Amino acid sequence: MAQVSDLGIDLGTSNVLIYQKGKGIVLRQPAVVAIERISKKVLAVGTEAHRMIGRTPGNVLALRPLRQGVVSDFELTNTMLRHFMSMVIGKRFFGRPRVVLSVPSGVNEAEKNSLISILFDAGAKRTQLLDRPIAAAMGVGMDFQKPYGCMVVDMGAGVTDIAVLASGQVIEAASVCYGGDYFDDAIIRYLRKKHNLLIGERSAEEVKITLGTAVPPISPLTDEVTGRDLLSGLPKTITVSSSEIYEAVKDAVADLIESIQGVIERTPPQLASDIFEDGIVLTGGAASLSGLPEAIYNELHIPCGVADDPQTSVVLGCGRALDNLNAYKNVLSDSRRLR
Fold this sequence. Notes:
The chain is an alpha+beta fold. Helices cover 37% and strands 28% of the residues.
């Protein structure tokens, strides 16, 4: 019998979501850790640490321990996961939970073993790994067990996983850096070049959410953006339109579409024709960029839609696997086999 504390974890570059068996999604926190610069003492984790981004004094660093879907800091990732798991199941690990963890499709065996070790240190009894695109497909209820091609594009902050699925497995896939951070960086560069205005990551993300669009806006919106004037060095507020933000991100969107096209071109013709008929499903937080399905359709002439709640698709897929491990054992990598 599986214990109620068994967990499905979506360990993303910008957010960590945890699904608890019998309860559903019980945690959604930013993947950020704040530390003291010299002593490396952990000061805050999750939401509290995220509030410090761009606002910390010189002796405090607010860091993401994952970059582009892989662990960039082993110790901080360990600390972060231990903190989040203790929030969900308490600090007394009686009956250590089993965990289904999503991983980007481009992660190698050494990185998989590192993640398994981190989860074991954080309190997991056994970890089974699930490729993110498969988890996303499961989370939106996509039936990929049949010999029929379907395509999912899971867009995280650091990594976008593009995959064609059929007969219960990944047929063709790519893991690229064209995610939410890539769009944010494009906005930062645009405002710096056109307006001599330097803004931080959080401000760029807010601009993307408010004004970002992957297609030319019919009725442009405007909003105020505050940053530092690169000429005077003083704070400066300007008015920016959604038309400008479209100009900022259009090349980044084109890079993403080119990557999707590349995967389709490598897909067997019969499965590719299935995708042209049924379309592409977008999941992940970065899939919320306004007009993105339309931009993909305009270039590739393939129907495209966004999941109802794109940010939760992967963790819901992990939860579905957790609820029926035997049915999905063919798509789960067992930690005992990896190690």
